[in-house]
Amino acid sequence: MPIPTIEFKNNSIKIIDQTKLPTRYNFIYCKNIQALWKAIRTMQVRGAPALGVAAAFGAYLGIKDFKGNNNQFLKKVKSVIKYLGSSRPTAINLFWALERIQKLAIKNKNKPIKEIKALILKEAKKVFEEDRVISRKMGEYGQPLIKNNDRILTICNAGALATADYGTALALFYKAKEKGKHIKVFACETRPLLQGARLTTWELKKHKIDTTLICDNMAASLMAKGKIDKVITGADRIASNGDAANKIGTYSLAVLAKYHKIPFYIVAPISSFDLKLKTGKGIPIEQRNPNEVTIINNKRIAAKNIKVYNPAFDVTPHELITAIVTENGIIRPPFSRNIQKVL
Ligand code: MRU
Question: Which of 53, 68, 136, 321 is the most exposed place for a label (fewest CB within 10 A)?
Fold first, then answer.
């Protein structure tokens, strides 16, 4: 039962408002790029592949009413893309989708504007459809990594809500279930914005997958007790040596997994790779508002004016990653060589 995270209908982007889940299942309708920018920044829509899909449709929203000549149109495309690219910095899928639209506009720059607009919409729909197919392929390719009765730890939300409708890491769980395997999932709550508690538990429960919620600081004790067989997460940007940025806290899980001799897997589409970067050191890490840490449910939980450190992501060094699952297959070390091969 796919979850319609994002759809394009009647010239507006229909999005499940993820800030309201799990208590309310509401939709928002972005009719212009300002509304979409805000939806991305406030994380009403979030998760790397979903950001790519949203950005592609957003680019169309930004140019669909344009009037003027071809030169001005190309300038407009570029300014819309620059604006949407300023919403969140880490997930490369957002920039990958925007670049795809920009390249298409440049390639067709001499065609009638009406035609270029139609091509841009077609491309955005393609990004959406491709994501649906890619998610399912990753789910399938990842199956050799999942055994019956596996106990799997995950963090953040790398599921349907982070993609068009199916997932990256969670796609492996859904496919496993479709194939009749029984798995037990442990979901880290994922402070500060609780994507694990609010979103992952919601969607896994909907899919009737045996799920246990833990606070982030409980992972080590579960591993020490031998209750975790593997860790599986998504990624927001992967450098060419395999270093991978994902939700803050992922790196700690990878270190813990190494210590406890548990495999640590990443599941991400090829659009999450940034081959321009040699290592993860160059990945831009989003710093978010201190209030996300100091305020919970409108209630202040920390001393007034306390200094806060609030990076949204961290980078897991490739040495800690057992394998990366993509829609082209599983990549194993040495990553520098094998990523090039598979991509
Ligand atoms: O800040 P978010 O909620 O957008 O972070 C999302 C994640 O870290 C996911 O794990 C990542 O995008 C990969 S999921 C498809």
Answer: 68
Pocket test for ligand 1, best of 46, 88, 199, 238 (most atoms within 8 A of CB): 46
User: How confident is the model over 196-245, as pLDDT tens digits?
Assistant: 999 999 999 999 999 999 999 999 999 999 999 999 999 999 999 999 99
Residue 228: name the closest of 257, 197, 265 by CA: 257
Ligand 1 atom index nearest CA of 312: 1
The residues assigned a catalytic role are 236
**How far is Cα 67 from Cα 12, in angstroms, rounded to an integer?**
19
pLDDT tens by residue, 62-95:
999 999 999 999 999 999 999 999 999 999 999 9
Pocket lining: 48 vs ligand 1, CB cutoff 6 Å: yes
As annotated, the residues of the chain forming the CATH 3.40.50.10470 domain(s) are: 141-342
- pLDDT of amino acid 322: 98
Contact between 195 and 46 (Cβ < 8 Å): yes
**109-124 per-position pLDDT tens digit:** 999 999 999 999 999 9
Asked if residue 152 has its Cβ within 6 Å of ligand 1, the reply is: no
Provide the β-strand partners of residue 238: 244, 273
CATH 1.20.120.420 boundaries in the chain? 6-136
Q: What is the CATH number of domain 6-136?
A: 1.20.120.420
Report which ligand 1 atom has the smallest distance to the Cα of 51.
4
Q: Which CATH number fits domain 141-342: 3.90.1860.10, 3.40.50.2300, 3.40.640.10, 3.40.50.10470?
A: 3.40.50.10470
Which residues 6+ apart lie within 8 Å of 46 measured at CB? 18, 40, 157, 161, 162, 195
Residue 158 Cα: closest atom of ligand 1: 14
**Alpha-carbon gap, residue 53 to 90, rounded angstroms:** 15
Whether 245 contacts 283, CB under 8 Å: yes
Q: Which of 45, 193, 200, 246 to mutate to test the pocket of ligand 1 (most atoms within 8 A of CB)?
A: 246
pTM: 0.97
